[in-house]
TrEMBL record, chains A, B:
Its EC number is 3.2.1.131. InterPro entries: A-glucoronidase_C_sf, GH, Glyco_hydro_67_aGlcAse_N, Glyco_hydro_67_C, Glyco_hydro_67_cat, Hex-like_dom2. It is an enzyme of class 3 (hydrolase). This is Xylan alpha-1,2-glucuronidase. Residues 46-119 form the Alpha glucuronidase N-terminal domain.
Length: 679, 679
């Protein structure tokens, strides 16, 4: 053992130097800018003074070296033995501890790395049981981030600065952020990343860009992360001037084959393609009278020999008169069973588009003969950008309450990561990145447990802080739903962006299903979208039991009431309030809740470094003002139809409808969108 | 009688036509724009159908005709006899009623007019007792409005549009507003008006302008209103090129004599001069080494033969190092006894300048041998302009609680009247004009009684409305003090205007006593202006008993605490809160109170015409936002000194100090100043 240990140490230290060189350093917590995320600070001096015994027998891969380095840096307990065993290769691992030592065992290098991060997580969030034996295996094989990053550095729906990928500097210059990004993902089990926007530039498949992609893949590989690309279905035309992109056309197929060969020549472990086809103006097989299946299968067959996959998005809707909530179903359900075995149909959690709250997308219960994956949105496109504190784990949990874990084969999450110092714009938006990773590893983890882990690693273990702030996080999604779109309301956002309220937004020569009025349908009789059998009958897409439940105004869960029904203003809710009064009370509840969050956070000042305390405090002020803005805008506008008074016991509006309707909030990718809201 | 009655009717009807022609008409209350003030609508058709018997024996003066016309128009009761009796001429009257008739008796025509308006007031605010005998005599002989109107149509500290006086059209074109203005003033007993700004343009004394003044005087005369002018002490130089304005200079005296002769030749009942001398850059006797008394007496002697008076303002302060609160006293107290008998020293209610709350100006108890008058401010220069609902009667009442009625010989009020359709900008600002008039007639009237009268005449008699809204009015001043400057804080307004908070406002090369920091003196030790014997010793200007009371931090009324003392942040208040906590609670109380006002007002919707309901509702929204702005600005700024947390049970700030400090609110005389505050 001694010999090996000795060897090990040598490797670690040499290896350490290289890593240190590229890893951001954090010293005092006094001014924490949040760049460290939830990860242990890398501290060379400490490492030198006290080095725990880490031993490993066998070939030292980069991955193993990273594991050893992480333990060297942060482990404060018994000696550790890393051991690779024979058996089916998985990302899983076993940790068994005794007084004398701890053993991490896996059949793969990355399994040992995951075990390492898990052990450190346990250490940093509590006490490591002296005689524990933990076995972890990820529930989902594919745990993927989707970056909506454009090649020009902008990020669609990104609110944390510019893209992490400096395409112009690649492949020669490698930002230290690439490794930090990989380390953060590995620490929570994410094992795949789609680098570019689903509205894909064909350029990404050019020889020039593929070299850049290769450079990133090389950095990510040791962390167990495979690279995927979003592709433009018309790439053969755009890149090589073919006259068609018809998936059944020989030249087209040939073109894709050559392209795929080239990619795998550069990136042997390339993951595959993500495709947004015939959606919101993107090209696709339907342009040539082919089905989504025919398009997806063409690519899938080419990727198969390399074990690559196709993730084919089901997010489609057309400017028809039919309920937008039904369109993905109508187009994809008939294709069930026609997709090739390495095609995954990627479906958003809800039938519309990442609204604050949606019922699950009925496709999940209607394509038993296809491989499905769910697409969550981590970036807060519809939840206050990076200004509002909204913890998303409860929202995702709500999805899994309707859709059994096994129904989906994989999870994708639209990333909220950018060039901001704290990565996500809002310090608490980091929790959504963290939670996404943890849920892809183990969807049965409770949001409380995940929040608890994240808070302890990111801020402090002090029970008073953890309990109070976890409480904020757990209530934050419901609060946002209440001050934005309670009782099943959806998509009543401002026209040019999805930040502020514009329930009145209406325009000529604009697709109906891009207008809030299309979604809330408020009139003198009531409010809500009738999707029952007397309306668009979208309820029919759900299994009978749910079709009954949702379709009947009496049994429909009130949180979905206005999603499925056009409800009279004076309709009696279960608590015996009228719908109008309940609507008013819900908005008010949302506002009061945010004020409560402010109170709790302000009390936390002694427990948090000044910088992050102030950052979060300032964001909560914006959220508090915005919540009132939402309440006033929606209630005063809907009141023009209900003609009913806002219950007098509630706080009165402080804005006039006229002011709010005349006020246009300008939004760009990077500017803080709230300047407008405050003054 | 018949003959006379017949005659009377004829006169009335002819007279009526002329009046009607010049009187704004109001029909339905559906869209009441507030232009009618508290006065009965003039309704010719009604008058024609049912004419009450009004009889009067004797010469029909214009004044008497107006009285008869008003009764014709609005009286709905028994026949009325107007009777002039011999005796000392006063503005007083007696009303005695029986089943058969009502008699109004006075020694003067205007007395009968006042009696008429009083009788109508009783009718419109309740029931006229069948067998009552009311005798009313005004407590103050001079009941004067001061207009800070400039000849260019602007109004200094005016927030209700432009000046009422269309100088360019005068004397040939006479706006109907002139008569409406006179009628409104007569109805509440106001009998004098100073037409122009105390920062007086010499032009007002030019031959050209005096003809215009004469035209107005002619319109006001029948309503018992005398005209006064503010004069520039350097007029002899500015108008006629004299080399001096020294009050002891023969030419100067001669000049004034000729000017006064000219004025009385045009306006036989001209009231006299108002003078702002050696104050804020205005010229005055001190420029020539003469005292204020010498300056005032020179003019007084010239006016005396015409029974004219001089109102000499004591509002003076210099860029010295001595406490501004002491300066008027130091300059005027020594002159006690030196003023000529027709000079009135006009003193603002407080020692600084119309702050939301001030202790009384100690001059009132220090010049026993002079004739004093108090200057109130009706326009809300320091109380939210015409955006905030602040009923001022309680503030004036507070003054009289310290200064006995008899101490002052007259009352002046800086008008809040402009060209706005509703005269005062805010419908409820009309109540301050009304209350001022009523208090000058009878200072012992309670603010409740006055609010009650005004509400019933201006809106409705419905008890639910009157009770609820009176409650708002009665609490409104205390609320404003709380959200602006509680516990004796004063003058922490924005630099360029007096609307918003800028406690941090500081500038080089600016007079110290124009800077908020001079007044609040916040530092790490505490906050407040030490005016006790250990400080500026301004307390010594008060009578011994009060000097003791105010000078001792333990006995000083807490509403004046920071006015007289620099108090440690942790000082224990009577309720055992620390000063800091009490400060926070006071600001919060102010905010919550305005929200309460909003709730009450919204409930009043059924009782108020749509237009005024919406107008007031909108203003209350502004006030509500402003209150939060004040609270956040002051607490967050003062917190940088106290370094203490805002009590966590209180609602948290929603603005950042940085935002507020970087935000410059632009104010002009006419624009709604709050655009900036909302967005």
């Amino acid at each position: 053992m001694t010999k090996i240990k000795y060897l090990t140490i040598i490797v670690c230290l040499s290896n350490l130097m290289s890593l240190v060189a590229q890893t951001r350093m954090e010293s005092s917590l006094k001014e924490n800018d949040g760049s460290q995320l939830w990860l242990p600070t890398i501290n060379v001096s400490k490492m030198k003074e006290k080095t725990p015994q880490i031993s490993y027998q066998g070939k030292l891969s980069k991955t193993i070296s990273i594991a050893i380095f992480e333990l060297q840096n942060a482990w404060r307990g018994q000696p550790i033995i890393l051991e690779k065993t024979r058996g089916k290769k998985t990302d899983g691992f076993t940790i068994s501890s005794s007084e004398r030592q701890i053993q991490i065992v896996s059949t793969t290098d990355v399994g040992l790395l995951y075990g390492t991060y898990h052990l450190l997580r346990i250490q940093n969030t509590g006490i490591v049981d002296k005689n524990c034996s933990i076995t972890e295996t990820p529930f989902y094989e594919l745990r993927i981030l989707n970056h909506w990053d454009n090649l020009d550095g902008t990020i669609e729906r990104g609110y944390a600065g510019k893209s992490l990928w400096n395409w112009s500097d690649l492949p020669d210059t490698l930002s230290p952020h690439y490794k930090e990004y990989a380390r953060a993902n590995a620490s929570i089990g994410i094992n795949g990343t789609v680098l570019n926007n689903v509205n894909a530039s064909p350029e990404i498949l050019s020889d020039n860009y593929l070299k850049k992609v290769k450079a990133l893949a090389n950095i990510f590989r040791p962390y167990g992360i495979r690279v995927y690309l979003s592709v433009n279905f018309a790439s053969p035309i755009k890149l090589s001037g073919l006259h068609t992109a018809d998936p059944l056309n020989k030249e087209v197929i040939q073109w894709w084959k050559k392209k795929v060969d080239q990619i795998y020549d550069l990136i042997p472990d390339f993951g595959g393609f993500l495709v947004k086809a015939n959606s919101e103006g993107q090209p696709g097989p339907c342009d040539y009278g082919r089905t989504h299946a025919e398009g997806a299968n063409m690519l899938a067959k080419i990727l198969q020999p390399y074990h690559g996959i196709v993730m084919w998005r089901a997010f489609v809707y057309h400017a028809t008169n039919d309920d937008r909530a039904k369109q993905a179903y109508l187009e994809f359900q008939p294709l069930d069973g026609q997709f090739h075995k390495n095609v995954l149909v990627q479906i958003k959690n809800g039938p519309i588009d990442f609204q604050p709250r949606e019922p699950y997308n009925p496709l999940f219960s209607a394509m038993p003969n296809s491989q499905l994956m769910v697409e969550f949105q981590i970036t807060q496109e519809y939840l206050g950008f990076s200004n509002h504190l909204v913890y998303l784990a409860p929202l995702w949990k709500e999805f899994f309450a309707s859709v059994p874990f096994h129904t989906v084969k994989a999870i994708a999450g639209v990333a909220n990561i950018g060039s901001d110092k704290n990565w996500c714009g809002h310090h608490f938006a980091q929790a959504n990145w963290y939670a996404f990773g943890r849920i892809t590893w183990n969807p049965s983890l409770s949001p409380e447990k995940i929040a608890d882990e994240w808070l302890k690693q990111t801020f402090t273990n002090e029970p008073q802080f953890v309990t109070s702030v976890k409480n904020i996080m757990m209530q934050s999604h419901e609060a946002a739903v209440n001050y934005m779109m309670p009782l099943g309301l959806h998509h009543i956002f401002a026209g040019e962006h999805h930040y502020g309220p514009e329930p009145w937004y209406n325009m000529l020569n604009v697709r109906q299903d891009w207008l809030p009025v299309y979604y809330h349908k408020a009139d003198s009789a009531g409010i809500g979208f009738n999707r029952s059998s007397t309306g668009s009958n979208a309820t029919a897409h759900y299994p009978d039991s749910l079709c009954q439940l949702y379709g009947n105004i009496k049994t429909c869960p009130e949180k979905y009431l206005l999603w499925f029904h056009h409800v009279p203003w004076t309709y009696r809710m279960k608590n015996n309030r009228t719908l109008w009064d309940e609507l008013c009370n819900s908005y008010d509840k949302g506002v009061q809740k945010v004020r409560f969050f402010q109170q709790v956070w302000d009390k936390m000042e002694p427990h948090v470094d000044t910088r992050r305390f102030k950052d979060v405090q300032t964001k909560l002020k914006i959220q508090s003002r915005d919540a009132v803005w939402w309440k006033d805008a929606c209630l005063l506008y809907f009141q023009t139809f209900s003609r009913l008074p806002i219950p007098y016991e509630l706080e009165r509006p402080i804005h006039t409808l006229e002011d709010m309707m005349n006020f246009k909030l300008k939004i760009s990718n990077y500017e803080c969108p709230t300047a407008g809201f405050s003054k």
